[in-house]
Structures are given as C-alpha cells and as structure tokens.
Amino acid sequence: MLQVYLKECLYFTANRLGRVITKMAEDEFASSGMSPTSAFLLMAVYEHDGISQKELGQILHLQPSTVTRLIEKLAAKGLLYNRVEGRLSLIYATDKGKALEASINECWINLRSRYAAILGEESDALSLQLDEVSDRLEKIE
Fold this sequence. Notes:
Elements: H1 2-7, H2 10-29, H3 36-47, E1 51-52, H4 53-60, H5 64-76, E2 80-85, E3 88-93, H6 95-98, H7 101-119, H8 122-140
Domain HTH marR-type: 7-141
Pfam families: MarR_2 (PF12802)
GO molecular function: DNA binding; DNA-binding transcription factor activity
C-alpha cells in the first residue's frame, strides 16, 4: 500500500524527479565549472544585461537571498558584476563571464538531449506541463 501512496503523492514524486534531474544537470554542467542554477542565472544575464536582482529572482523562481548568494559567488569568480543605481542593483556579465556563454549553451543542449533520449517526444510537453502546474500551485500559496 505504501508504494501506491508514494506513486500517487505529488510531493514525493516531484522530489524524486527533482533529485534525478538535478544529478543529470550537475553532470552536464560540470564541464562549465558551475552549478546548473549559476549557469541559468548567467544565461538570464546574457539575455538581459543590466537586469535587476529582483527580475532575476522572478525569472528563475528563486528567493532574493538565493539570488544574492549566487551573484556574490559569480562576482567572486569574476563572471559578473553589479552596479547600484538608486535602489536597484543591476547585474552585468563581465568579459570573462561572456566567454562562457557557448560552453553554458552546450551544457544546456546536452542536458536536454540527454533526458529527451530517455523520454522521447514527450520531454518538451512534460516540461511545459510541469511549468504550468508549478504556476498554478504558486498562485494558491
């Protein structure tokens, strides 16, 4: 009976999926020398150079303290910097950070290819469905 409860429990199955996909992502992004979350933060900065910390948190669905910690780590590595304008802290990629863009994109493509090889055509649909479900659950909190 426990196996049925676990398989039907969104909390349990989502955490299990999170652990599995995190391991895959960490393996794929290891060649970039960054965690997947740090790499995705840099990807957001590439797309929106001069983005605010608040916007980064919204895009990546991360708490402000987590965004601050990631920015501090990446700044310490010389990959990005922040410039304060009034009450806003704007984030920019350094030349060293920009030099990693191709490597990070390759890691992301490799990750998607890796799970698509296992899940087949349903991988993109599953990602979109999980994103929609997450949005709906966030709205009720």
